[in-house]
Write a structure and sequence with these properties.
By secondary structure, this protein is an alpha/beta fold. It contains 7 helices and 15 strands. It has one domain (2-284): Ribonuclease Z/Hydroxyacylglutathione hydrolase-like (Metallo-beta-lactamase, Chain A), CATH 3.60.15. The longest helix is centred in the C-terminal third of the chain and has 13 residues, at 227-239.
Length: 285
């Protein structure tokens, strides 16, 4: 698997264009890896995590063509992760040409948000909801926590996140060709039984990507994690055999209020044994 981070920022981007805090000013001056768009990620050019508001800009920035995109896993429906207009962009009869059909896996709460965000164009959309055998250009399929999905060459386990401001937020365990990863943005401390239950499904991760929203300021908030929380969750995963010394750990979803420029934050993380993502970063598994 080739995993690419298309965005690694929390809501609003980093720097936030409306903000002149010390961290945003430093990021503007530093440029490069300190410029972060809102979170999304791509696997092998065919599986996307989150159809968000910065995706078009990220694709232009990194030369990504979404024509071969076949599947999308949506973590939750907050506005920094979900832009409903993508449905029109992909499925309107005047929009995307010569592209693959797309299946978009979302929770039940996201469906009315997507429909409302495309109200004007709905009659023109080649789109179905919960019709797995449809030949539509865009198929929306509802998913729930603790569901096992199989599509194309992928196996996926949906895991409930602890993101209290969202309805049915999810983390994703993803496996292809004997290699596997965990994508865990937008979560605070997980309940005690989560990692043992994931282990019961037979998972072991080569790569763990975890929410680093709160930087080195605090372990957890009500909705997110910081460095100490990341390391605590990783230790809990290791205790039940989900990871080992060969597993790579990377933090993502960095917020401007709790992090500074990439080089400074990355050095602190590396001293603790893990890495921080940056936009465009590629990890080959």
């Amino acid at each position: 698997m080739r995993f690419q981070f298309l965005g690694t920022s929390a809501s609003g981007g980093f720097p936030n264009p409306h903000c002149r805090c010390e961290n945003c000013l430093a990021a503007r001056e530093a440029g490069g890896k300190s410029i972060r768009m809102m979170c999304s990620a791509m696997i092998d050019g065919e599986l996307l995590i989150d159809l968000g508001p910065d995706l078009s800009g990220a694709c232009l920035r990194f030369g990504v063509d979404l024509g071969d995109l076949r599947w999308v896993l949506q973590t939750h429906d907050h506005g920094d992760h979900l832009l409903p207009l993508h449905a029109t962009m992909r499925a309107a009869n005047w929009a995307a040409k010569n592209v693959e059909p797309l299946e978009w896996f979302v929770n039940d709460h996201a469906v009315p948000i997507i429909l409302a965000g495309n109200e004007k164009s709905l009659p023109k959309l080649d789109m179905t909801i919960d019709q797995p055998d449809s030949s539509a250009m865009l198929k929306i399929s509802r998913i729930e926590p603790w569901q096992e999905l199989v599509f194309g060459p992928y196996e996926v386990l949906t895991i409930p996140a602890n993101h209290s401001s969202a309805v049915l937020p999810m983390l994703f365990a993803i496996r292809k060709g004997g290699r596997s990863l965990l994508y865990a943005s937008d979560t605070a401390e997980l309940p005690e039984g989560v990692w043992p239950r994931v282990a019961e499904f037979g998972w072991h991760f080569d790569l763990v990507i975890f929410d680093h929203n709160d930087g080195f300021m605090r372990p957890y908030s009500n909705t997110h994690s910081g460095s100490d929380g990341v390391l605590q969750e990783y230790a809990r995963m290791r205790a039940v055999g989900l990871v080992d010394e060969s597993t790579r750990l990377i933090g993502t979803h960095l917020a401007h209020h709790s992090n500074t420029i990439h080089e400074v934050e990355a050095e602190r993380a590396q001293a603790l044994g893990y890495d921080l993502a940056y936009d465009g970063m590629v990890v080959d598994l």
